[in-house]
Each structure stands twice: as structure tokens, then as C-alpha cells.
Amino acid sequence: MADIYNIGEFLGIAQHRDGSLLNTGTAIDARNMDTSDGNLSVAKGYVRKSGNAIPSSAGQILRIIPVDESNILAVTQNSIYHGTYDTWNLTPIYTFETALPVTCQIGYALGKINTTNVVVIGTGKTQLIKVNMGDTVTAEIFGSGLYIFETTVASYADKVVTLADAMSQDIQQKFVVEKGVYINGVFRKGSITSDTTITLDTTPGVAPVTGDTVKLRGGASDAHCNFVCMHNGRLFAAGDPDAPNRLYWSTIPGDGRTIEHWLAIESSVDLSGGYVEVGDTTADPIIGICELSTQILIFKRYSIYRLYGDRPSYYTVERVEKFTENMSNAGVAVKTDIPYWLTKSGIKLFNGADMQLLDGGQNYLCSFIDTIKTVSQSKAFTAKGKLYFTCRVGSTGTYDDSVIVYDTVNGTYMVRDGFKIADMCAFENTIYLINDTGYLYEFDKGEKYDGQAISAYWQTQPTDLTLKYVNKQLKEVYFRAGNVGSVIILETFNGNSRNRERRVIQNDDMIDLPMNNQPCRRFSIKLSNEAGSHFTIYGGIQIQYEGKVRPV
Question: What are the CA-CA distances from residue 153 to residues 207, 255, 341 (Å)?
Fold first, then answer.
């Protein structure tokens, strides 16, 4: 008997079940293909966006931070650089005293301090860094310790305290915010008379004497945190190596307070900064935080917690996962207020109640997931209706080398590979990549990976057409293809044997390609490019076959 096997549209990878049970349009394996419109096209590559490169002397690039339409930052092992997408300023805006390790997790948050937009960057090895995004982009240490000014009493008379050292303008401003100072550990309200004199509001019961200590509180925000986010107007931070279970939060800005102040406010606990210890063991440190609309998800090495409530008096911390896998703080993508992240078991999500695999407990990318060596430097983001997760499959090197792309519309996957990844991100639906060259690239653009050919293929599910008792001999394949002069290689897999055909196609050419395979009970078809050629197959494919019932 003669019949037609029809693939009506092309979809991405789905591997979990037997191919005969899956949609015929899904692939058992594919690389560097685009099936988002139902057609099959070689995926676009990436092209240089910046005209110059961050120098190799900066060390490995650890993170790129898209700030707005005109500004982007890059954190390397040695420095922080500022750029305008088209050009990097090759003079660093900040240089670390000691080079960061290539495994360093870099977190960041966009916020505002007074009238200046800032980017707060955490490394875990240094105090937080504050990048001021003013007319001139500058970087400096964020926050301060418990006290920012210490001196002694030179003299005291009639509520007037004369200081041994003068206060700078910044210190005087901070005094106004705090409305007083600590004298011998007791908080005394007062006002500034001059840079060396303070007039107390009331006469103290015990008068200050010469030599008494005078201290002005700082922000207490000098912890060496990795992970930062903004939530309900406050800055939250974690990853302090000296307090690995601690989640900090800043005061609520206003009345001179900013997100650099993490201290308690005497008048109100809900205005105050503070912290909470999450969990009960230092062997389970915080390794990431993620802001959602009504809560903060707190990833620990072996468990997951969440903090919810809109102010400190209502904050509640609860565990939502007792045992979990390692992940990357930079590897969390949030879409419709649901966080997704990559582990060595697959892509996981938090649905507001519990954790689960993206496919509802079934891993449709199992064969590829099994090849992943590490997700420790994974980067994740969402763009163009898809989720992107980087990972490393190769056993050597310090760069990720593959990207898992999840199509949220069709519920299928694609793997992109053949290039190194220091970081990837998206801003307003444009995807950016930076690799070991130091150039910034625009992803999903052009026909090559910065001049390098793209190797692409798409392979059907192995199928017996639900006719297990029938030998099938494939006779001819029909499809309509585009792109003048491109080359499609078609391969047929019958058990361990393989047949290969090659055809140069013309634009809008309807292809009738004879096939020479031996009769088989189960087969798979693979379509691939050659030497980086680009092609598109429109509207699926049809395969004519003859079936013969096996003799009893």
C-alpha cells in the first residue's frame, strides 16, 4: 500500500516520550533552528554591536547590565566598564583591589538615591558598588559601616557640645538626617551650630565631659553581598560571607533616608532597615534572591524560602522547598511573575505554591539535560515570547557554550550552540551577547556567528507510524523551500543505517526528492544545512512511503 506521512508544521525539541506518541511536528533533536512561526529556518546568528572590545587585560567578563536605552555596564574580573551599546569607554569607572574569581556571582539592582539613578552591584568579595548614572557616569563604594564619624568632646557648657574634630558637609547632612549623635553610647538629639559645635535639645542628666566619645551612625550597609534586588521601594541584599544566611533590607527612602541606610529608625519599625536570618545552618547559605510582585524568593544551597509582607512588621519568612538543586542567581528569568531557573534536572519554576519542573514533572529535554556539565554560571532572561537559559556542555573552559530556548507559545525547546557565552541579556526585546572577544553583539541577527558558519539541523521523532507490523519504504519527500542557492542535506535513519541525499534549492522551489532507504519498521528524517547555509522550509513536509505487511 502507498500512503503519505505528513508533518504539518515544525516545532522545537520534545524528547521525553516515545516519538510515536508525540506531535509529528516536534523534533527529537535539533540545533540552531527557528520554528517559532511553524516553518523550519536556520536560526539567525549574531553581529557586532560595539565598535570596540573590552581589553583582555580586564580579565574574564562576568556580567553585562543593560541600564537604559543609552547605557550598558560590564563587570569583569578586574574592573567595571561603561558603554553606550555602540562603544565601550575603555577607561574603567571602577577597578577592584583584588581580581574577582571567574566563578564570582554578580548581582545588580537599578534604584535611585535622592535624585540620581544608580546601579547597585554586588560581588560578594567587596562592599557593594554604586554606579551613579548622572551626566557623568561614576562608580564608588556603596553605603557605610555602623559609624561614619567618630571624635571626642573637647568641652561642654549649657547644652553646647564642642567637638575635637570638625564635621564635613556630608557628615553635617547625615547629622540632620539622624537628628542627633551618640555621646558615650547614649543617643542625644540636637542641632548643628557650626562644624565643631552641637546644641543638644535638652540638658542631659549626666553632663558630657572632655574626652567622651561622639559618634554618628552610618548606614550599616557595608556588608560584602552578592545578591541585590529592589522590592516595595527598599533594597534587599544577601550573600554576605560573614553572615551567609542573612537577608538585609534598607530603610524606606524619605526624610533624608535612602537605600544606603540599613539601620533601625527609632520612631518606626516600618521605616527601619534590618535583617533576618533565613534558615538555621551556615552549611545552607543563601545563593540567590529573586523579586516577585508580592514576595522575594530566597534560594539557598539545599532549600528555598520566601519572604512576603509589605513592611518589616508584617514580614514573614517561610520555607517552600526543603531539598533543591544548585542554581545560579543570574540564571533566573521571571515571566508573568513566575520565576524559572535551570538546574541539572531541567528547568524549574515556582508557581506560588511549590516548585516543579517546567513540563509539569516531565522533562521534555532529558537527553540534552543529561549532557550539561554545569549551570553554576547560567544566565537567564525572557525576550520575544521565549525563555533563554545558558549552560556549559563542554568539559573544559570557563565559559558557557549552549543556550536552551523555551518557546512559551508552543511549549517546545531549541538548543543554540557553537559559541562562547560570558553573559547574555535582553533590553526591550533586543538580545545582547558578550563572549571572550570583549565585543558586544546583537543576538538573533545576521546569518553567522560573528563571521563563523552556523551548523544547524532538525530531526523528526523516530516513528513507526503506529504500524508496527508494516515494513515501510520511503519513496519521496516533498516540501517547499526558500533562499536562493542554499543547501539542504536530508538524512534518513533506519535503525543503525543512514541514507544521505543533497539538493541545491532555488527560491520558492517545490522540492520532490527521491529517497533510497531500505524497508524499515521505524524511521527518522534529519534536515540540516551545509557550510553555514541558510534555508527555510515552508508549511511542513510530506513523505510518500509504501508499506508491506510483514509475513506471519
Answer: 11, 28, 56
d(CA 421, CA 148): 41
d(CA 543, CA 522): 14
Is the model's pLDDT at 500 over the cut of 80? no
Can you tell me the distance from the alpha carbon of 552 to that of 548, in angstroms, rounded to the nearest whole number? 12
3-state secondary structure of 174: helix
CA distances from 405 to 202, 306, 343, 492 (A): 66, 27, 15, 26
β-pairing verdict for 524-529 and 234-238: unpaired
How many secondary structure helices (H) and strands (E) does the chain include?
2, 45
What is the pLDDT at residue 361? 66
Which residues, other chains included, contact 201 with Cβ-Cβ below 8 Å and sequence gap of 6+?
159, 180, 188, 189, 190, 191
Taking residue 83's Cβ as centre, other Cβ atoms within 10 Å add up to: 22
Rounded CA gap, 346 and 359, in Å? 9
Backbone angles phi, psi at 173, to 5 degrees: -65, -40
Mean pLDDT, to the nearest integer, of 457-484? 88
SS3 label, residue 175: helix
Q: What's 167's DSSP letter?
A: P
* Vertex 343: Cα angle to 342 and 345 (nearest 5): 120
Q: If DSSP states are collapsed to H, E and C, what string results for 253-302?
A: CECCECCCCCCCECCECCCCCEEEECCCCCCCCEEEEEECCCEEEEEECC
- Distance separating alpha carbons of residues 265 and 251, to the nearest angstrom: 8
pLDDT at 19: 64
Beta bridge partners of 296: 291, 307
pLDDT of residue 267: 79
| C-alpha cell read off for 307 | 519572604
How confident is the model at residue 446, as a pLDDT?
Answer: 95
Chain segment 161-173, per-residue pLDDT in tens: 999 999 999 899 8
- Strands (E) in 336-411, as ranges, are 338-343, 346-350, 355-357, 380-383, 386-391, 400-407
Q: How many other C-beta atoms are found inside a 10 Å radius of the C-beta of residue 368?
A: 22
pTM of the model: 0.92
How far out from the chain centre does Cα 102 lie? 16
**Which of 339, 330, 336 lies closest to 296, judged by CA?**
339
Q: Exposure string (b/e) for 515-534, b if CB count within 10 Å is 16 or more?
A: bebebbbbbbbbbbbeebbb
Report d(CA 552, CA 149) in Å as an integer: 95
Q: What is the pLDDT of residue 445?
A: 96
Give the count of beta carbons closer than 10 Å to the beta carbon of residue 499: 15
Q: Could you give the CA distance from residue 56 to residue 54 in angstroms, rounded to a whole number?
A: 7
Nearest to 516 by CA among 496, 495, 492, 540: 492
Q: What is the CA radius of gyration of the chain?
A: 30
Percent pLDDT > 70 in the chain is 98
Count Cα neighbours of 17 within 13 Å in the Cβ-side half-sphere: 9
